[in-house]
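step=encode ok
step=design start
structure_in=
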């Protein structure tokens, strides 16, 4: 689920909820009732009710609704002479008396259409001074909730003796925000949700572009930093009242979330643990340091550290990686302990075996990762290599050199080893790095990040590599096209496509891994058998696993095709066919040729020849990796040159499409892009170029001051 925040895990235990909806939410700007928003609210409450939650509603809006009706009644009953006189303000208590019955009638009507029963409870501040009243109130609400009735509370303004808003340390309320907090305490609620006309609590007025949404309120940090804007356009409260009520309830042990009453299904999202609105919790100060680092600060810090890294001599950069490798081995016990905790949690949560398998750091894995890092460290220095050297004119030399891209944001799957591989490539290429791993590996990622960054010297800074801990931070990072230079998403088709559509930052990656193996009529059939089985069986979830097997028509009538079907089925592979293969082989027809199974399943189709195979791959493939098995070299050459994929193989398994197997040391991912890196992306794929011009005082002067030679000096 997107945007799930680990700090909101407490919602799993929520049973009883108090929801407060303010006047600004239930009315339009002209003061009329916002029936559409009320209807959407009632639908959410209906869903919560059916899911077994106990919902208590505190609703404002009666005074505003009553004022609107009394204004209309006064207008109808006034003469022209009356209207010319100065108009006196309507009595608020009269407005409350008229509006309360009207408001409740609307709730009753809306809930009735959803087959839900509601009940009205009007209270005043003095009622709560009576212990017997409070006891009876608790019993009444308990009975209503047991019958799945929705209690709807409001202050009885029509008869309240209070003349002005006030606060009282005993908890007596002074508006519906403080009433909802008081009710949450009295009725032992598990959560209080305050619906507002803005997304939550901001660091300043929401209309100020510099204001930032505060996701978790930490009293020690925020109480002296927030600048409140104007109070609500209607009602008595405003954000100041909401914050005071929230702090009071949270300190008493009731978590509170302030969020927008305008956004669809916000209450449902709150109960799913999504990071929306502002959370108030008594333990909030334990979850985050007093000094939080926001997305921009993290990205800017990574950029600054990367520039310091690039400025170091090659040997010092190499030594940093060797120190990290040593630190990984030295901390292996602690790393494995945290990894085992992740694996146990994933098993308890019932995740698929394939995901759990990717989580595990097997014995020897840390040593292997450390050795891979040493291998990358010992590669030739990739930064500042002269790729081309040209004499533009006498004494004027131009060099095209390799250069780091800048700051990389990499979103990767729940594979802790990927964090180490990616970090090693980023450091070797001189790039700053922001990492977001799968939530299932959060403890493993955290300890690996800690070990790696603590091994980076202060001359560079551990903030070279930032760890993004929640998916909710990703949308903010994707807006930072002025700081982050490249996004590399590793994961599902949905994840990659979503990121591509959500950012202006260049995205390097692939959305699908639909890999083909074509068996030509000239193939060595025993070789073909081994390649097909390896391409599908070796690691079915890999993006380089075979998803479609194409077979030359001349092999369709031979035993080889039947034999390979038996072999695949013996290994547990589910087979689907194209139009030709499904009828010939009596197997179910595939829903689409453009499909990535990522499991023990594949599609088989019969084709006329190599050119039909090429056309099929270019039409239905994903430009990832495709292979031909053939002894006819003319046929193989046609395939190798005409299949438009990042990697094209002859007589080899598609599983070789991998950075480590290509000798790159590791990979940050596999790119199907046609710009910049393509295929497995290692160190070279994380570099761009710079032009360095060295002269001796030359000027252009309309090209009259120089005599161009444009002599290639690259080889000299």
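sequence_out=
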């Amino acid at each position: 689920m997107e945007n799930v925040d680990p700090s909101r895990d407490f919602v799993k235990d929520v049973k009883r909820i108090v929801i407060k909806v303010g006047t600004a939410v239930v009315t339009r700007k002209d003061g009329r009732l916002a029936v559409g928003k009320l209807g959407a609210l009632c639908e959410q409450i209906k869903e919560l009710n059916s899911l077994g939650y106990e919902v208590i509603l505190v609703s404002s809006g009666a005074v505003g609704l009553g004022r609107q009706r009394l204004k209309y009644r006064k207008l109808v009953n006034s003469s022209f002479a009356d209207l010319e006189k100065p108009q006196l303000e309507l009595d608020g208590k009269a407005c409350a008396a008229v509006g309360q019955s009207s408001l409740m009638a609307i709730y009753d009507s809306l809930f009735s259409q959803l087959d839900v029963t509601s009940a009205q409870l009007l209270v005043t501040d003095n009622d709560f001074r009576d212990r017997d009243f409070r006891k009876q109130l608790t019993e009444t609400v308990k009975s209503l909730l047991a019958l799945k009735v929705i209690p709807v509370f409001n202050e009885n303004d029509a008869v309240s003796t209070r003349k002005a808003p006030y606060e009282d340390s005993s908890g007596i309320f002074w508006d519906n925000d403080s009433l909802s907090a008081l009710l949450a305490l009295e009725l032992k609620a598990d959560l209080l949700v305050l619906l507002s006309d803005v997304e939550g609590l901001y660091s300043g007025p929401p209309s100020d572009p510099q204001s930032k949404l505060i996701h978790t309120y930490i009293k020690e940090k925020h109480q002296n930093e927030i600048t409140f804007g104007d109070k609500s356009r209607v009602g008595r409260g405003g954000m100041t009242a909401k914050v005071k009520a929230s702090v009071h309830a949270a300190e008493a042990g009731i978590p509170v979330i302030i969020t927008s009453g305008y956004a669809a299904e916000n209450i449902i999202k709150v109960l799913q643990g999504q990071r929306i609105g502002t959370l108030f919790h008594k333990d909030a100060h334990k979850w985050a340091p007093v000094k939080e680092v926001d997305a921009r600060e993290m990205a800017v810090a990574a950029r600054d550290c990367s520039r310091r890294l690039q400025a170091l001599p090659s040997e010092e950069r190499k030594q940093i990686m060797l120190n990290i490798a040593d630190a990984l081995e030295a901390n292996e016990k602690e790393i494995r302990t945290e990894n085992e905790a992740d694996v146990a949690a994933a098993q308890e949560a019932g995740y698929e075996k394939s995901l759990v398998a990717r989580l595990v750091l097997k014995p020897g894995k840390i040593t292997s990762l450390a050795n891979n890092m040493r291998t990358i460290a010992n590669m030739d220095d990739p930064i500042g290599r002269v790729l081309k050297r040209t004499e533009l004119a006498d004494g004027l030399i131009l060099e095209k050199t390799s250069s780091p891209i800048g700051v990389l944001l990499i979103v990767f799957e729940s594979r802790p080893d990927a964090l180490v591989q990616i970090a090693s490539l980023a450091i070797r290429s001189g790039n700053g790095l922001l990492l977001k791993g799968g939530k299932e590996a959060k403890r493993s990622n955290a300890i690996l990040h800690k070990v790696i960054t603590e091994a980076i010297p202060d001359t560079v800074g551990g903030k070279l590599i930032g760890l993004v801990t929640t998916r909710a931070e990703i949308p903010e990072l994707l807006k930072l096209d002025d700081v982050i230079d490249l996004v590399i998403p590793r994961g599902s088709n949905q994840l990659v496509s979503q990121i591509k559509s959500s950012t202006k930052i260049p995205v390097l990656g692939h959305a699908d891994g639909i890999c083909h193996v074509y068996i030509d009529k000239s193939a060595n059939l025993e070789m073909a058998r081994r390649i097909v089985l390896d391409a599908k069986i070796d690691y079915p979830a890999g993006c380089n696993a075979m998803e479609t097997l194409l077979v030359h028509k001349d092999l369709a009538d031979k035993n080889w095709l039947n034999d390979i079907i038996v072999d695949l089925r013996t290994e547990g592979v589910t087979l689907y066919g194209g139009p030709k293969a499904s009828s010939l082989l009596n197997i179910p027809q595939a829903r689409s040729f453009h499909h990535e199974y990522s499991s023990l399943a594949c599609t088989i189709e019969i084709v006329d020849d190599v050119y039909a195979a090429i056309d099929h791959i270019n039409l239905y493939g994903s430009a990832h990796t495709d292979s031909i098995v053939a002894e006819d070299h003319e046929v193989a050459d046609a395939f190798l040159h005409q299949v438009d994929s990042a990697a094209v193989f002859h007589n080899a398994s598609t599983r070789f499409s991998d950075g480590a197997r290509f000798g790159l040391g590791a990979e940050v991912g596999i790119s199907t892009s046609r710009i910049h890196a393509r295929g497995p992306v290692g160190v070279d794929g994380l570099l761009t170029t710079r032009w360095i011009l060295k002269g001796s005082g030359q000027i252009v002067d309309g090209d009259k001051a120089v005599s161009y030679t444009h002599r290639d000096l690259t080889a000299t």
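step=design ok
step=annotate ok -> DSSP finds 25 helices and 24 strands in the chain.
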